[in-house]
Design goal:
GO terms for molecular function: diguanylate cyclase activity. It contains nine helices and eleven strands. It has 346 residues and is of the alpha+beta class.
């Protein structure tokens, strides 16, 4: 096979793989997913009852999966490699991270490093799935459970509690010294000066450790139109409501502050860029789906970045601002991540 033909095949298979992921995880469309399967589809999922040997079993597993959790998953492809086996068969090996808020249970499911092996065959003018095998990199199985979720949740709870206790101790000491001077009167959130001090303490304590801290800069879209059209009081109510939406949905280890104007800054310890992106997307949806009683929808834009080795607080903030500008330029009501660019000097 010529290199140009190989490149064209790889791109076509990669597009088929991404289309399959999007239909399965984000759209949660069982009928459309069946249409992407080949006539001999088979494989194995990560659950105990997810063995598929023919299309009818595939249909049953897919419909059960989507009916049990119909909410869309946010996902990110960490790695994906296409290997052509012949002109009409190709293998895809991929590693993805997924996150889903299960609304009926009020829980959030987050799984990193879902490993997928997929075989696609070119049938009737399209690349269709013939085999799928999903697994997690487990090393400590627990009974019949392929992935020790409970053990991981227990460890995460202990770590989260320790971080929260440290954060509360720092906050109590700070409040004794600073009192109400560091609180935004309108929202009740810490103000910019207080958040700036917190960020400097966190970055200094981490010694610029990459991926150990993420920040999300949030700005209410067209807040000036609310102030001009409905009055300052309406704008203040929007600010307070958005602050409550954000405050109610962030994690106990996160710190939220009023950054100025219609902007808020969220600091997320022990969080990398991908995790911060998941959180930002969930917050964006929460704002966009809220009725603020204005007679028109209200949205917010998000800029996300994560600490890099040797980073500084000013550099971190400037990258978040760059992400926010990109979100505004992309039409607002979106999330833009700036995590892998060159560090901005402090």
């Amino acid at each position: 096979m010529e290199q140009a033909d190989r490149n064209q095949l790889n791109e076509a298979v990669n597009q088929a793989f991404l289309r399959y992921l999007d239909t399965w995880l984000r759209k949660r469309d069982a009928a459309a997913l069946h249409d992407l399967n080949g006539p001999l589809v088979h494989g194995f999922g990560t659950g105990a009852n997810e063995s598929v040997y023919d299309p009818d079993e595939a249909r049953e597993v897919i419909e059960r999966d989507i009916s049990q959790v119909p909410e869309p998953f946010e996902y990110a492809v960490r790695t994906a490699k296409v290997t052509p086996l012949c002109t009409d068969v190709a293998l895809v090996a991929a590693d993805i991270g997924i996150r889903n808020t299960i609304l009926a249970q009020g829980q959030e499911l987050a799984l990193d490093h879902l490993r997928l092996t997929l075989v696609f065959r070119y049938i009737d003018g399209a690349w269709r799935l013939e085999h799928l095998h999903g697994s997690f990199p487990a090393t400590e199985p627990d009974g019949e459970e392929a992935w020790p979720l409970q053990a991981l949740e227990d460890r995460a709870a202990v770590l989260q509690r320790k971080v929260w206790e440290r954060y509360r101790a720092q906050e109590a000491a700070r409040q004794c010294e600073e009192g109400q001077a560091s609180t935004d009167a309108l929202t009740g959130l810490p103000n910019r000066e207080r958040m700036d001090e917190l960020l400097h303490r966190e970055v200094a304590g981490l010694n610029g450790q990459s991926g150990a801290l993420a920040v999300i800069l949030i700005d209410i879209d067209h807040l000036n139109l609310v102030n001009e059209g409905l009055g300052q009081e309406a704008g203040d109510r929007v600010l307070a409501d958005v602050a409550n939406i954000l405050r109610d949905r962030i994690r106990v280890t996160d710190a939220l502050a009023r950054w100025g104007g219609g902007a808020f800054l969220l600091a997320c310890p022990m969080t990398d860029g991908l995790e911060a992106e998941y959180l930002a997307r969930a917050l964006r949806r929460a704002v966009a789906e809220t009725d603020f009683g204005l007679g028109f929808p209200l949205t917010a834009s998000f800029g996300v970045t994560a600490l890099q080795a040797g980073d500084t607080v000013p550099g971190l903030i400037r990258r978040a601002e760059r992400g926010l500008r990109q979100a505004k330029e992309a039409g607002r009501d979106t999330v833009q991540v700036v995590c892998r660019e060159e560090i901005v000097p402090g």
